[in-house]
Structures are given as C-alpha cells and as structure tokens.
Write a structure and sequence with these properties.
Layout (H helix, E strand, L loop, with lengths): L2 H21 L6 H11 L6 H12 L8 H19 L8 E2 L2 E2 L1 H5 L1 H20 L1 H4 L4 H15 L4 H10 L7 H26 L4 H28 L2 H4 L12 H24 L8 H12 L3
Antiparallel strand pairs: 1-2
Helix pairs in contact: 1-3, 1-4, 2-6, 3-4, 3-10, 4-6, 4-10, 8-10, 9-10, 10-11, 11-13, 11-14, 13-14
Bound molecules: geranylgeranyl diphosphate (GRG).
Geranylgeranyl diphosphate binds next to helix 4, helix 9, helix 10 and helix 11.
C-alpha cells in the first residue's frame, strides 16, 4: 500500500468538500472570507479528517456522508491554528511555510476568521444541505463528540493550561493534561467520529478510542521533538520556540521521549489489530504520525 498516494487522494477528497462548503461563505464581507479561506486552504496535512474517514472505511462503511463532519473538524482545527498564532498566544509569523493569518490580514480580522470558522463548523454539521442523509441521532452524537473535544474540557482547556504554565517549572501531570487536551482531544475525537458514524459496537469503540489517544499523544510528542530537533524549512514554522513551555523534551529528555513515542505508535497499531486486514492503513497512519517531519 502506497501511504503517500492514499493520503494525497484523501486530501483531495476533503479539499473538494471544503471548497464546496466555502462557496457558502460568499455572502460574508470579503476580508473575512479571504482570511478564512487563506488558512483553510493553506496546505494542511488534513490528518484529522483523514483519520475520521479512514476509521469509518476500516469499519466497512463508505465515507461519502461523513465528509461534512470530517470537514467541520478541519475547520475547527484551522480556527485553533489562527488563534494559537496570534500575538497574545504563540505570536508566530509563519505557519505552513507562509505568513500567519494575522500577519496577512491583521489581528482583528484573523481573530474573527477563527471565530467564524469555529461557528461555521457547527452550521455545516447541523445544515440539512450537508447532513440530511445522516440519522439525526448520529448527527447529534457526532456534534457532542466534536464540541466536547474542542471546548473547555478539551482543546481550549489544554490551550489555557499551556499558556498559563509557560515559563513555570511545571510537573509531568500538568504536561500530561496539556498534551492530552490541547492536541490529543481533537485527534481522538476524529477517530471516534469515524467509528460512531460507522456504527461501532462498544468494544470496537473502546479499541478505536485507544488508537486515537495513542496517535494523538504520539502526534504531540513528535511535535515537541520537531520543535527541538526539526528543520524550519520542512516544518514550515519557526522552531525552538517551546523552550519555556511544558514539553516532553523538558520533562523526560530526548531519549525517553523517543522511546515513549515508539511505544505509543506500537500501542496504536495493536489497538486496531481486531480489524484484521482493514487495520493496515490505520496502522500506517500511526507510523506516519510517529515519523512525520512536518
Ligand atoms: C487556540 C483554542 C486554541 C487551541 C490551539 C491546535 C492548538 C490548540 C495549538 C497549535 C499549537 C501546536 C503547534 C500544537 C502542536 C500540535 C499541532 C496541533 C500541530 C499542528 O497540527 P497539524 O500538524 O497542522 O495537523 P497542519 O498544518 O498539517 O494542519
């Protein structure tokens, strides 16, 4: 199986669906629309929607009707990057190899573009135009999954702890809270969305949740390692910025961090073994996350 081709095919599928959704932004003031589209279409990996689709297909269900939910997750991810880059948070000038949204459009427009992407994600999931073929009980369940992962008890909770613990000594418990909420929550939810959409039974959902958690934490540890050891040209953003933050490198050092990363990838691969041959792509994605260079 050629994973790169698989990821590219899925990325094109998701981007076509996002382009269709973006047509519905036509009525909003152009600077806002331009800022939203600037970040939404700036060459992200689309790993979260890909996880949702791949999980759904691994469970034997076609991915057509999950696309609006997968795109909503990507819209929420895009909002989080815009806000994370703002001067009041990480104050980054570069993301995905180009100027961050606030550098290109100004702080107020960037802040509002993030707000709009977040809100529009929920419109998409509740708009019959996109989700009428999905059972409304499932739609409600998916909105619950995604909002729980993105909100105060998920990504935003993790982000606030990340911001507040900057420059402090910190503990491994705080580190764990930040990593499992700021980054893992939305990745875990992406997998669960695919599983729930495909009608996973309780035991299957438990295993796929374990896969999502392991991939999510591996993703963030890899991010910590990339910040310390990666190449700016490849990663597409300024590096060595996390030295005042709570990171795996700070609390465990490079060797233990790499061992933990390998273990998490292995845990993810093991968790999906129950799918037999249908686990192959999910396992490959877990390995890709553990080795990613951007
Ligand atoms: C502002 C509420 C709020 C949350 C921000 C996502 C996030 C939380 C912060 C981003 C900071 C960061 C670099 C976290 C590390 C993991 C991460 C989310 C990396 C970026 O995700 P990728 O690699 O990005 O999937 P692409 O560009 O591929 O979409």
């Amino acid at each position: 199986m050629d994973l790169n081709k698989y990821l590219l095919d899925k990325k094109i599928l998701i981007e076509n669906s996002l382009k269709d959704i973006a047509l519905s932004f036509h009525d909003c003031p152009s600077p806002l629309r331009d800022a939203m589209e600037y970040t939404l279409f700036s060459n992200g990996k689309r790993i979260r929607p890909i996880l949702a689709i791949t999980t759904c297909e691994a469970m034997g269900k076609s991915c057509d009707d999950i696309l609006p939910f997968a795109c909503a997750i990507e819209m929420i991810h895009s909002y989080s990057l815009i806000h994370d880059d703002l001067p009041t948070m990480d104050n980054d000038d570069m993301r995905r190899g180009k100027a961050t949204c606030h550098k290109a459009f100004g702080e107020a427009t960037a802040l509002l573009a993030g707000d709009a992407l977040l809100t529009e994600a929920f419109r998409v999931m509740s708009d019959n135009r996109y989700t009428e073929r999905t059972n409304s009980r499932i739609t409600k369940q998916l909105i619950f999954e995604i909002s729980s992962a993105a909100g105060a008890m998920g990504m935003v909770g993790g982000q606030v702890m990340d911001v507040l613990s900057e420059g402090k000594e910190g503990t491994r418990d705080v580190l764990h809270y930040i990593h499992t909420h700021k980054t893992t929550a939305l990745l875990r939810a992406s997998v669960r969305v695919g599983a729930i959409f495909a009608g996973a039974k309780v035991r299957e959902l438990k295993k796929l949740t374990k896969y999502g958690e392991s991939v999510g934490l591996a993703f963030q540890i890899r991010d910590d390692l990339l910040d310390a050891e990666g190449e700016e040209m490849k990663v597409g953003k300024r590096l060595k910025k996390d030295s005042t933050k709570q990171t795996y490198m700070k609390h465990y050092g490079p060797i233990a961090s790499k061992i933990r990363l390998e273990q998490l990838v292995e845990d993810a691969v093991q968790a999906v073994q129950f799918l037999g041959r249908d686990s192959i792509i999910l396992a490959e994605i877990a390995r890709f996350v553990g080795n990613r260079v951007a």
